[in-house]
Amino acid sequence: MSQNELTAAVPPEKLIYVVEDDLAVARLISGVLAEYQFRHESFRTGQAFLQRLRQQTPDLCIVDLGLPDMDGMALLRQIRERHRCGVIILTGRGHVGDRVMGLESGADDYIMKPFEPRELVARVRSILRRCEAPGEIGDAARQRVAHFSGWRFDVARLSLYAPDGGERPLSAGEGLMLLRFLERPNRVLPREQLLGQHDISPFDRSIDVRISRLRRKLEDDSYNPRLIKTVYGAGYLFVSSVVWE
Question: How many angstroms separate the CA atoms of 102 and 106, rounded?
């Protein structure tokens, strides 16, 4: 995709927060985002970011793990507890455990430093598309509520309610993935269809981590799942009757 195509594909109203204490890296990210017409704000500490987050929720956060005042993983968990914006971890930590922990804590993607600017833009655009769940849902579908295995899912609010009535917070990506399952129950869905992407690397296991997060929200045992079953080499199968109202 050319630079003109990348730039044209970005709606100018999108807002991105960058949490990065390294001034040189922060300037590089800001320059890349400005070049592709993203509105953005930068923060050098977690506390400054959280203060701004209380005032306005962005469409996406790019978060460094090595902040001077708090752990990036703890910051990520705070974002996920209160907000549904997309989150990309951008860090120099290369350990596989950090990547898995970040994804399990709610990050949508994980990018290593040093990074290629065009790759950063491509991943930002991918996450933003994934988080635009309401825009991907038609007006009629948005008014629907799904009932399955004692659970209830309100499409308009992307809200999940347990059999005891308690709400289980979902990120926008998790809500959209659940919706795709509920619209096609008892059918094997490939990874690309669940993520809404066509360019997934065969070595990309982030979909598996997201499925694991969704299983936990549904109280579905990962070792012996009742609702979301893995079909090796093909995708995932949502096993339940679904009633729409």
Answer: 7
Say whether the peptide bond before residue 12 is cis (omega within 30 degrees of 0): no
pLDDT per residue over 63-91, tens digit each? 998 899 998 888 988 898 788 788 999 88
How many other C-beta atoms lie within 10 A of the C-beta of residue 245? 8
Distance of alpha carbon 183 from alpha carbon 29, whole angstroms: 38
In Å, what is the CA distance from 153 to each residue of 159, 178, 211, 236? 6, 9, 17, 19
Do residues 227 and 220 touch, judged by C-beta distance below 8 A? yes
145 beta partners: 154
pTM of the model: 0.66
Which is more confident, 203 or 48? Answer: 48
| pLDDT for 203 beyond 50 | no
Q: What is the DSSP string of 166-234?
A: -EE---HHHHHHHHHHHHSTTSEE-HHHHHT-S---TT--HHHHHHHHHHHHTT--SSS-SSEEEETTT
Q: In sequence order, what are the beta bridge partners of 41? A: 17
Q: Are 187 and 194 in contact (CB under 8 A)?
A: no
Structure tokens at 95: 């350990």
List, edge to edge, every strand of the sheet that includes 151-154.
Answer: 167-168, 159-161, 151-154, 145-148, 243-244
C-alpha span between 120 and 94 (Å, rounded):
17
Q: Does pLDDT of 200 surpass 90?
A: no
Lowest mean pLDDT among 1-10, 92-101, 142-151: 1-10
Q: Report residue 155 as tokens.
A: 């499409």
